Every structure is written in C-alpha cells, then in structure tokens.
C-alpha cells in the first residue's frame, strides 16, 4: 500500500534506463540467457550487515541478496510493496504493516514480523555500532536504545509491536508522512535467526531472501553469487549468477572488458570516455542517476571551522570551474551542480537549479577575496584526499586543484592526496582523521529530497562525514518530515537546503550520470536510477 500522503515524493522525472546489448558469444555453451556473468567490483568498507553498509559497493550486493517491505522500481524509482502486503496509517505516525505469506530466507526460515523487528532492534542498539542506526531515530524508544552518550537503558525499540507472524505496528515519535517510502533502503531489510545465533558464520557467508545467494566471498578477490530458485519475488534472476571481481584500478577493469576477460563495468574511467562507444561497438550506457559529487570539509578540525570559515569554503567553491572540468575531463557526462540534490527528483520533488546561486559559479576574483576574508588556506595550501583504487578520481581531482591554483594565483595552493583503497579511505573518514577537504558524494538511498539532506547534514546523521551541525537546519528537516502536504514539505526541505550555500559543509561539484560498458555475451543491460546495474534482468549468451 502506497498511501496518497506518501506518494508525492517519488521523483517522476526519472526516465526508463534500459538498453539492449548485441548478444553474441557462446556464453560458455549457454544460449538461453542463463549463464553466469562477471562484473567489476571494489571490496566494501564493512562486512555486509544491512544496517552497517552505507556505501555503493556493499549496497550493490545487499540489493542482490535481500528484499524488504518495499523496493524501488528499476525504471521509475517508485517505492513498491514487496514483502509488505499493506502499510496503513490514519495519522502519519502509527503504521500498521501486514506481510505477504510464503516468503523465506535462503536457509528455509520463514520471513515473519519478527525478522523485521529483531533486525531493526539490532540496528538501533548503540552497542552494536551500526553506521545506519540513525535511520531508526524516528521510531519510539530510539533515545533509550541509542542515547547520545552513555549506556542504553533499553535494548528494544518501544515503538515496534508484534501482533502475529504477519502483522506488526510501528509507532514514530513524530509525524513522518513519507516514512513508508524509505523502507526499500537496505538498513530496513529483515534478518534470519542465524544472524543472531551464529553471527560470525553469517558474516562469512550472508544469508538473505533476495534473487541471489552468496556462494563464496574472498576479500580482495571477489564474490560469487548464484541465482536462488527459492526466491518468491517477481524479479527473479534470468541469468545463472554474477561473479563480482575486485579491481583496485577501474582502468584495469576496462582493459579486461575490452580483452574479453570481464563482462560488465559500471564505472567507466574518465580517460576512456572519449573512445568508449567505439571501443565497445556501442555497448555503452550513460544515463541520469540520483548521484551528486561533492568535496566535504572536516568541520571537526578548527582549521576549517574557525571564525569566518564559511567565507573560506565559499571562496574555494567559487574557484572551481565546473563547466570546464565536466566538459574536458568527463566529456559532458556530468552536469555542473546547482544545488545539493539531483535533477532526477524533478522540480516537484525538490530539485532547484537556482539554489546554490553564486557559490556554485566560477568567479576567480570573488574567490580570492572570500578566501582572504576567511583567513586564507590553512597553512597556505590544501590537499584533496581521494581513494586511488578508482581510475576515475585522479584526473578530476587534479583538474579541480589546477582550477583552484589558477583562481588563487598560486601554483601550490591545492594538490591531490590519494589513499590506496576505498576501504582505507572510508575508515579514515569515519575515524575523523581527515585534515583537509576530501572526495565525497551521494548516491540516493531512496528518491526523496529528504535523503539528499538529512543523512548528510543533520546533526549526528549516519553519513554526516563533515560533522556539520546547524540547529535551524535540523528544525526545518524535522518540520518537513512531519508535513503531509506535498508542496509544503518540499518547500520546507528547500528552506533547510538554503542554509548549505551559506555554510558550505560540502562543495557541490556535479551531478553524475550512471555509466556501464559490457561484453558481447550480455543483453538486456540496464542501470536503475541509483546507477546500479539491474543484474537480475541481464541475459548471458
């Protein structure tokens, strides 16, 4: 059930993103499309606990091995019921959830209301240290299981009540009209009992309820997933499985694709964009996606959060020539950012290409003035930290630094600072070890303007890597969440977003399209609005 009060927020501007490959090849003797494909991948930051994964590579796997109350349509991004038979409310605060019968996990255990309640209680409990715990903050009792400091005084969320195996209720601590549309996000997935009774074994080989099962995983090498014939959903895998292969350089993955050693790459390196269509004989997609790239500041460091520091951050933003970089480095496969959301939301969903204003305009003279008024670059120079295991980052980081150097009239004002792997990079961010701006960005979890704002900039939120805190921003987000009127909710979210160009906790750089290239063995290749391949619908052979 999608209540009319919640329906408004889904981005109607998301277009269908389907393309058909050339086919060809013998697929290892398989000609009915059911062979196994290989795809590039990067090791996730953490083990694949649903509530402890908030980055793309881990999320990619969770989307393959789990299904929750809802899922997001791979073409429209609409939140659609999966295990939920209905989600009903009369007051936008108490939600009555009824599950469909017959769903099971890969080990044969039934998916019941307890599968959700136990998983959500685990995710919220502060001692379990789950990154996505804050997604449960609106459920009654969260402050008891996840206090801001000290030990919890309860171990279960008081707002979760089981009626029977197929029915439970959720009581929120305030109105949240669009809450049902968040329930396709991985943090809300159900968990089998083995997750709790033999946690170590589950981490070695996760058991889910999605179209694929994990066959094996070797960190640093790859993961083998195979189609699960016990899957109950209507999007069962048409192929036999996916072998995810770990690459520390996307250029190497692209070379392997050209050589026939890999079937699918969903991160085409910037250096290859000029020739990719010719290289792959047209087997290439570049489509709009709910992704924005940013540069975040470590606001926990006094060097970046002192008096007048907002002027310093504004000045650096205005020293970046977004139009030139997106044209020359990305061959116009990126769009210069004008706000902190994404065009896929559409104007009705909250996208506003005027919101950033002058702060997102290239203006060298004004940039120099603001940097000076903001106290100058800390120590006279800055470094931009990024993970080196993606061939896509070095080129644009160097280009951003060149732009800043030119604007400020100083050859060594900015330089790139690579970190070896994505996991190490993320660990440094989570450990608050950054002392300079760092590569950031956001791939939407669900298609709501709220998702581009609250997880990243609300005080203490799960992905607030800048550690930004503004009481007025928080109040406006809370007010918008409680608003059931579509236009008023969007306007209030936008009012909160207008604080960002004033404070600039992160510089909005550009909106990123999803891209993919594939081998002749594949057909029916598509990217969803989150830029992730729709693996279950790819045919092999």
Structure characterization notes:
The protein is α+β, with helices and mostly antiparallel strands. 28% of the residues lie in helices and 19% in strands. The protein is built from 19 helices and 21 strands. Strands 1-10-9-8 form a four-stranded mixed sheet, covered by helices on one side. Strand 4 and strand 5 form a beta hairpin. The protein starts with a helix and ends with a strand.
Task: Give a concise summary.
With 541 residues, this protein is of the alpha+beta class.
User: Which stretches of 5+ consecutive residues score pLDDT under 50?
Assistant: 1-30
Compute the average pLDDT.
Answer: 91
Computed CA radius of gyration, to the nearest angstrom: 23 Å
Number of strands: 21
Q: Widest sheet: strand order?
A: 1-10-9-8
Overall geometry? globular
- Spatial gap, N to C terminus: 38 Å
Strand content: 15-25%
Major pleated sheet = 4 strands, mixed
Structural class call reads alpha+beta
SS field, number of helical segments: 19
What percentage of residues falls in helices of 4 or more residues? Answer: 25-40%
Strands, helices and their partners?
Elements: H1 4-7, E1 36-41, H2 56-65, E2 70-72, E3 79-81, E4 84-88, E5 94-99, H3 113-124, H4 142-145, E6 160-164, E7 167-171, H5 194-197, H6 199-204, E8 212-218, E9 222-227, E10 241-246, H7 250-259, E11 264-265, H8 276-279, E12 284-287, E13 291-296, H9 302-305, H10 309-318, H11 322-328, E14 334-336, H12 346-349, H13 364-373, E15 382-387, H14 393-408, E16 414-419, H15 422-430, E17 438-443, H16 449-457, H17 471-482, H18 486-497, H19 500-503, E18 506-512, E19 514-518, E20 522-523, E21 539-540
Parallel strand pairs: 1-10, 15-16
Antiparallel strand pairs: 2-3, 4-5, 5-7, 6-7, 8-9, 9-10, 11-19, 12-19, 13-17, 13-18, 14-18, 20-21
